[in-house]
Amino acid sequence: MGRHQVRLWVLLMTALAVQAQTKKQIEDQRIELLRGLESEFATAQTYIPRSTRPLEFEAATGYWNKEGWQQIGDQMGPAARDGDMVQVTKVTIDKDAIVLELNHGANGQRGRWYSNGAGGVTDTGAPAPGGSVIAVHYPSGLAGVTSEKVKDALAPVLSFDSRTATGNYVDKLPPEVKAAIADKKPIVGMTRDQLLLAMGSPVRKSRENVNGDDLEYWVYGNPPGKVTFVTLKGQKVVKVMDAYANPGGSVADTPLNP
Predict the structure, then answer these.
(1) Residue 76: which H helix or E strand, with range?
(2) Strand pairing report for 236-245 and 225-233
(3) CA distances, 256 to each of 220, 223, 242 (Å)
(4) Residues 201-205, mean pLDDT to the nearest whole number
(5) Nearest-angstrom CA–CA distance, 178 and 185
(6) Cα gap 37→142, rounded to integer Å
(7) What's the pTM?
(8) Containing H/E element for 238?
């Protein structure tokens, strides 16, 4: 192999190594963004309308069209109001934008709302009555962008301080639900998110269709000892049962004075 060929071979190998390193960096960034943003809770700092098309937000300047968002809300209703808690349920990474789906998008969680006829929207449902989509734009590309930088950029619209988000959300709940979360116990009528706040993730989950209804069963605890069975229909807890599991696997009803 001549000197010229060796030089070309070295240049080729170097280019391939740089390309491989770049691909790895891009993949590592993608994983970090997904892990750092998906399923995160945040508190709305402004009115966010329900929208099927991404609401535009400029990361570099912190600009969003407040009047435009309100006009969309006049037609579609609110996804969240100032102080409501939302959850990032899907993250899409584009070349120059990160798209966050909130509360499963426009067809997700819904409350009751109506236009008051004077250009505003009044919501009479639970906190975060709907879902939406926000596109966080980075005109110069995503190089160096992390999940924390996305959260910092969105601060005028969404606060990702978990203590603030959870505290604001719990404060607005009915007294019986707030007490159940504080006591770390499930009650009928809780939503899926409220159950997670009270009990955390279950040990096991299973699904079943009963007379056309899709039911989900969450199990907390392991034998021997107390085991709690929670049945959800859609987003709501419809049944709670406590039992005591013996070492051999048999289950007995919860005694009155365990």
Answers:
(1) helix 66-76
(2) antiparallel
(3) 19, 19, 11
(4) 87
(5) 10
(6) 15
(7) 0.54
(8) strand 236-245
Neighbours of 210 (CB within 10 A): 9
Token digits of residue 3: 């000197």
DSSP state, residue 152: H
> For domain 185-253, which CATH number applies: 3.30.1450.10, 3.10.50.30, 3.30.980.10, 3.55.40.20?
3.30.1450.10
Rounded distance between C-alpha atoms, residue 162 and residue 158, angstroms = 11
pLDDT at 69 over 90: yes
Other residues' Cβ atoms within 10 Å of the Cβ of residue 190: 26
Q: Strand pairing of 85-93 and 97-102?
A: antiparallel
pLDDT of residue 160: 87
Hey, where are the domains in the chain?
3-170, 185-253
**How far, in Å, CA of 247 to CA of 251, rounded?**
9
Q: pLDDT tier at 202 (50, 70, 90 boundaries)?
A: confident
